[in-house]
Amino acid sequence: MKILIIGGTGTISSAVTRLLVAEGHDLWLLNRGNRRDEVPASVKQVIVDINAHNDDDVIATMLGDEHFDVVCEFIGFLPEQVARDIRIFSGHSSQYVFISSASVYNKPVRHHVITEGTTLANPYWEYSRNKIACEELLMKAYREQGFPVTIVRPSHTYCERRVPVSLHGSKGSWQVLKRMMDGKRVIVHGDGSSLWTLTWNEDFAQGFIGLLGNPKAIGEAFQITSDESLSWNQIYQAIADALGVEFRPYHVASDYLAAVAPSEYNCRGNLLGDKAESVVFDCSKLKTIVPGFCATTRFDQGVRKAVAYLKSHPEACIEDPEFDSWCDRVIESMEQTKKIIQTNS
Questions:
Q1: What pLDDT is stored for residue 345 in this prediction?
Q2: For 9-30, what is the HEC assignment?
Q3: 3-state class of 112 per DSSP?
Q4: Residue 55 lies in a domain
Q5: Per residue in 14-51, is it b (16+ CB within 10 Å) or e — as a string?
Q6: What is the Cβ-side half-sphere exposure of residue 115, based on CA atoms within 13 angstroms?
Q7: Does any domain span residue 345?
Q8: Mean of the per-residue pLDDT values for the chain?
Q9: Which has more pLDDT, 101 or 292?
Q10: Widest CA span of the chain, in angstroms?
């Protein structure tokens, strides 16, 4: 197949790129070219910041008269961006795959088992509401114009370049790992017992590619996740085990963290609108049209790969002293409150 990926070098799309190349597809990437050296030589690259252009003709001219079997939009976040895609790719693609997010599902959850039929609503996170608006616009184009859309909703997908945690600063998750290695306590939202799903990016890619060129996927939405559900205590314990250190959790209520965290930590959206909810994803709809799909990488296996990568790539280990100090202050404040209450009891 002739496939265009808008993006193609991110956490999720890099695995899709590698697998499509391995399968011999005619693959094109349209992106800013920031990781050009990581792209296989056989891939055709169109270097442009598509979201910075207001002129459809600029993008259309760069693509020429090319017709694609599939266009995959990995960096569409706003309705106006997908509206642009509808204008550009109508008649120039047999399938348009929009990568949405599992954070679009109703918060707070009304049932812990999530299917594609779960209501879409997230009052906590503008990112999720924009994704919902994108989905609605695309489905309207499908119903009224026959625009061949497929919607994909990943949840928390990770790769070797980053270790997934529930709370970190603006510079990524490394500082959380450093706290573990330094023997410091690590903030875990709630009591750590809520369930979460983490998906290795290469597993996601297997399910995703099964949707490409699949006529049963047109006009439908699919979530692609692992079947493994872990508590956040188990997730952090697996990270500590991969590091070979003791896990010293410090549990703090999610709404308290959302109230006291700097805005750049996005605790309201990231926690209240997503990770603080206990969810289990039912991927049976995907498996009916992608027979044999199964995420095979357990989190304890994937996180060891990620830790090994970070230890061998010190440039990826970005320290965040501001976040570290904030964690210390939150913990100290909580401890002082305990002492006051105990003294007055």
A1: 74
A2: CCCCHHHHHHHHHHCCCEEEEE
A3: coil
A4: yes
A5: bbbbbbbeeeebebbbbbeeeeeeebeeebeebebebe
A6: 4
A7: no
A8: 95
A9: 101
A10: 77
Q: What is the percent of the chain with per-residue pLDDT over 70, rounded to a whole number? A: 100
pLDDT at residue 227 is higher than 80: yes
- For residues 146 and 136, give the distance between their C-alpha atoms in angstroms, rounded to a whole number: 14
Q: For residues 336 and 268, give the distance between their C-alpha atoms in angstroms, rounded to a whole number.
A: 24
Residue 210 located in a structural domain: yes
> The domain containing residue 141 runs over which residues?
2-158+200-224
| Residue 138 tokens, joined | 């695309």
Count of Cβ atoms closer than 10 Å to residue 338 Cβ = 10
Could you tell me if residue 307 is inside a domain? no
Residues 274, 13: Cα–Cα separation, whole Å: 21
CATH (domain of 209): 3.40.50.720
Domains in the chain, number: 1
Mean pLDDT in residue range 246-267: 96
286: its two tokens? 């995907």
Contact yes or no for 30/9 (Cβ under 8 A)? no
Token look-up 């005619």 returns: 26
Q: Residue 135's pLDDT is what?
A: 98
pLDDT in tens, 157-203: 999 999 999 999 999 999 999 999 999 999 999 999 999 999 999 99
